[in-house]
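I hope you will forgive my troubling you with a question about protein structure. I set the record out below, with my sincere thanks for your time.
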Amino acid sequence: MFDDESFEEKISFRLSRMNVFVVVVSLSFFLVFVTTYIIAFTPLREYIPGYTDLETKRSVYSLQRRADSLERVFDQKQLYFDNIRRIVMGYEDGDDSLTAVQQSFRNKPSVKSDTIRYTRSKEDSLLRMEFENTERFNLMTEGSIIPESRRRAMGIANFFVPLKGTVTNKFNPAQRHFGVDVVSRPNEAIKATLEGVVVFADWTPEKGYVIGIQHAGNFLSVYKHNSVLLRREGDVVRAGEPIAIIGQGGELSTGPHLHFELWYNASPINPEDYISF
């Protein structure tokens, strides 16, 4: 290369096969190095088709495990609320929680618990009475040596009377009557027997307006044949707080009364053993 005015030589170079080869190889190595650096250390690698990101795989795996755990917890909660709904509806589907759990997790048929009949002999009842009277006034604080009957009574000693009146139909599981019917004056307020959360509050064709309350200690109270409900699902109520008005709603009602049920660990118990109506 020469200057246009003085024709003085400025730059000179000579091309040869070796020089061209060296330049091309050096340029190729430089391009390979730059490309490798971009792929390995910059976010642009995510836009390359077929490139796998290990961090993305870890995130997907973690999210999948969380989704599986949430699905399992949701199924358990749904089974729990379905069991409460069956109790409130009066076992209309003819199934119980034990059968549902076995079918869900074991997929095996099970025997219905309502077909089992337990009978106590006279000697067994006398022995139980003698044992309970013997330890009745003992001062025991160890939970493992307190009889089940006394331990349960100690935990449920503060029931509030839901409705003052006359019991016209008593607790009779053999006839699938899992509660008591209480007759009182019209428009009387029905009160919560214990503090808890309303888990069911709706109208049913057979039972009228029904409300169910979940309490601490696996207790559930159910109030049926109401004319008006004063609380909704999710409400927190205290013992003695009005929750409904007495009525005769539903096809199975013959007059204004309250059908009251008390459940413990998904099993019906006699409300008159703990409450004086």
User: Anything to note?
Assistant: Residues 92-102, 136-147 have pLDDT under 50 and may be disordered. Helices lie at 17-41, 54-88, 97-105, 122-134, 148-155. The radius of gyration is 38 Å.
